[in-house]
TrEMBL record, chain A:
Keywords: ATP-binding, Nucleotide-binding, Transport. Signal peptide: none annotated. The keyword Nucleotide-binding applies. InterPro entries: AAA+_ATPase (IPR003593), ABC_transporter-like_ATP-bd (IPR003439), ABC_transporter-like_CS (IPR017871), ABC_transporter_ATP-bind (IPR050166), P-loop_NTPase (IPR027417). Residues 21-248 form the ABC transporter domain. The keyword Transport applies. This is ABC transporter domain-containing protein. SUPFAM superfamilies: P-loop containing nucleoside triphosphate hydrolases (SSF52540). Belongs to the ABC transporter superfamily. It comes from the Bacteria. One of its GO terms (molecular function) is ATP hydrolysis activity.
From TrEMBL, chain B:
The keyword Cell membrane applies. Residues 56-236 form the ABC transmembrane type-1 domain. It is found in: Cell membrane. GO terms for cellular component: plasma membrane. It comes from the Bacteria. Belongs to the binding-protein-dependent transport system permease family. This is Putative transport system permease abc transporter protein. SUPFAM superfamilies: MetI-like. Keywords: Cell membrane, Membrane, Transmembrane, Transmembrane helix, Transport. CDD domains: TM_PBP2 (cd06261). It is a multi-pass membrane protein.
Amino acid sequence: MGATALRNGPSPVPAPIDSIVEVRGISKTYGNVEALRGIDLDFPRGKLTSLLGPSGCGKTTLLKIIAGLIRADGGTVAINGKHVTAPGPERAFVFQDFALMPWATVMRNVAFGLELRGTNKAEREAIARRYIAEVGLAGFEDKYPHQLSGGMRQRVGLARALSVDADVLLLDEPFSAVDEQNRRKFQEDLIRLRTNQNKTFIFVTHSIEEAVYISDRIVLLSPRPGRVSQIIEPEIDRSGDPERIHRDRHYLDTVEEIWQGLKQYVE
Amino acid sequence: MTLFGYRVPMMASLLVWCVVWEIVGRLDLVFLLPPFSDVLVAAVSLVQTPSWQSATVTTLRAFATGMALSIVIGVPLGILMGRVKIADDLLGMWVNIFSSAPLSAIVPVLMILFGFGEKTIVAAVFLFAIWIIVLDTRAGVRHISPSLIEMARSYGASRPALYSKIILWAALPEILAGIRLGLIRGVKGVVIGQLLVAIVGYGALFETFSRNFRMAEFWALTIILFAFALLIAELIERAEAKVEYYAGARQ
């Protein structure tokens, strides 16, 4: 993975060839607040790209525009070359607050995407069972969300997104409502998942460490109005022990560099 | 309730009041208040009379019809107001006015519209019960986490699926609370309606008893009504507790 763009240290990188999501000239204004201005971005297939920036830079807005949940004022989003303005089966969303149905079991929550598509019960539950196990929740199928911890709830949200077999997974600060220990474990799982599943991940976060830790590619957004300020491809070997990454020199250098770049936006 | 450090069950306090009633009744201070034991005896013989039985059937039928109508119309109306701003702007004022207005004053108008029969009683139950159901349903729909709606949309929910699989369920605790309060108001509606029409069901009985100063039977009928109202409120509360259990972790 990521062998094409290996360079010495982090650096801006031109648009890659095989991009699954193409964002062109996206702009969005709320009232008189300009949230996004002229966003052009390509998301390479099979990679994990992070949208990183301080609060108010419009990263979640951009993600929701790609998801088709928010309509842009201008510009286009294309998935596999096809323009989209509404949600579609090739994209699946993981929510910051999990967005689980409290009245439904883990099984029904995970299978809900398939239920909406009309997959029959036996088939969708077989698929859901597989992904519940994949995210490490085997045995919790009949539990209700309020019986689970925050970290486990987000695993349910992740299993739901995986079970619809979308090409692109959109994750909106998925770990921000999860405690620190669970977050670490979750990040490691995500790295493993990205290797196992042949999927494209677009990941919104405000944590520099998190972005550098898990991303193939980091898009830095600057606030008010949100624009792309820099694209970084951290050159980090993630094949071995995930614990080791936190001590990797490139990891530390990249975190530092991004921090220097973002500092100006923080009072 | 605690007394001298001992926990006393609620039923015990009720018993104290029954004893007080009995004593006051035996003292023969006011002829309006016969002893409680007389009321109980009257209640036992009352429920055996055909006039009480047919009045109960009439009353229950009117009550059930009025409640069914106010739930079937009130819940969708509340969902509409919770979801569509223009519907809320148009109807909100009226629902609020009617939910707090002294509706008893309108019942005579209902009599002109629907005649001196069961239809008026049904209309009275409906008029008393529906507004709180609409308001609570609306509040429930307003409280649904926006991300739950976004979740359904992002996984391709059709509009009917969004309403039947998400919105109705997410607002269910408030809808049930509204129905419980609506039931209690509906009991008020059925009693006031029947009292004013005075020739139907319990209204006719109340009229007969009070006109002939048969106070024991009058009180017996009142107690039966109160017990009925409390019983259905309790039943709905049970259902609510079950739903609250699932809704407990709402984000």
